[in-house]
Prior knowledge:
The protein has 175 residues and is mostly helical. 63% of the residues lie in helices and 0% in strands. The protein has six helices and no strands. Helix 4 runs antiparallel to helix 6. It is globular. The N and C termini lie far apart (48 Å).
Amino acid sequence: MSNIEKRRELLKAVWKFHSVLNIIWPKPGVPVMAGSSTFIGTGFFRSLETGIKEIDRMLISFGLDQEIQKELCDFWHVVYLLYLRLKVQKRLEKSVQVDDAINLLYLASGVLYNRIKEISFITIELAPGLSDVEDIEKLLYVCNWGQKKGAIKEIENNIMSEMRALLEKNLTSQP
């Protein structure tokens, strides 16, 4: 498989992961917040782990220079750690922190998708009727990150910091 084909397959895997997150994502500003924990332990939630592992495997064979590969792998590793933290949360205990974590995972997968497109100069075609990952400006807006604009790599670093901060908190406790 050529590097271009690998990158297209990686973009498809990230898009699928992002699409699953879109189902459970609590959409900031929507009155029905603190409800994404109900998806913990469901098939939707378990499919995220499959997606994380698939994306991780693909990132390792991405076919770019080592610096970019390390950047993307390090970023995705923090996504995986946050997923693992969410995986052990109580399903029926509503938590704003769980919603914040799901929001960060949604944002992170969208940023990864946009970063891969940025460094690869490729796009993929999706099946008709399926939504694409938002461009970076819209993604930041819908995830309530509009105030944190910048280069995608800088945004990536900010998201990693936010994910690490959440990892240090007890996600089940209310603020």
